[in-house]
Amino acid sequence: MAEVIAGAAAIVVGNTGPAHLAAAVGTPIVSVYAPTVPAVRWRPWRVPHVLLGRPVPCAGCRARDCPVAGHPCLDLSPGEIADALDSLVARVPLEVPA
């Protein structure tokens, strides 16, 4: 998995293990990020990234199960995700292997 992620121009993932793996190998990340965990502590580190989500009253609550019916924090359209990916890739120089 690390090799595939390392070879990608960018990756779209949730705030899970593959996001941290992408950060470790330097791949830019669009993360669909549930706000129950503080982004300041758990966002991707030292790699270009965009966090997507919605502001909700439970932000930072650290709940293991969503306390709000319907998961409104993750109510994102495919277009919003694609726009974030396009924006991220446009601002990160593409490295072409020699």
**Strand content bin:** 5-15%
Low-confidence stretches: none
Give the averaged pLDDT, no decimals: 86
Strand tally is 3
Distance between the termini: 22 Å
The structure class reads: alpha/beta
Strands side by side in the biggest sheet: 1-2-3
Radius of gyration: 14 Å
Quick structural gist:
By secondary structure, this protein is of the alpha/beta class. Helix content is 33%, strand content 12%. A three-stranded parallel beta sheet has the order 1-2-3, sandwiched between helices.
Explain this structure to me?
With 98 residues, this protein is of the alpha/beta class. It has one domain (2-91). The protein is built from four helices and three strands, in the order H-E-H-E-H-E-H. Strands 1-2-3 form a three-stranded parallel β-sheet, sandwiched between helices. Strand 2, helix 3 (39-42) and strand 3 form a beta-alpha-beta unit. The two termini are 22 Å apart.
Key structural traits:
globular; 3-stranded parallel beta sheet; 3 strands; single chain; 98 residues; alpha/beta
Sequence-ordered SSE layout with sheet pairings:
Elements: H1 2-6, E1 11-14, H2 17-25, E2 29-32, H3 39-42, E3 49-52, H4 78-91
Parallel strand pairs: 1-2, 2-3
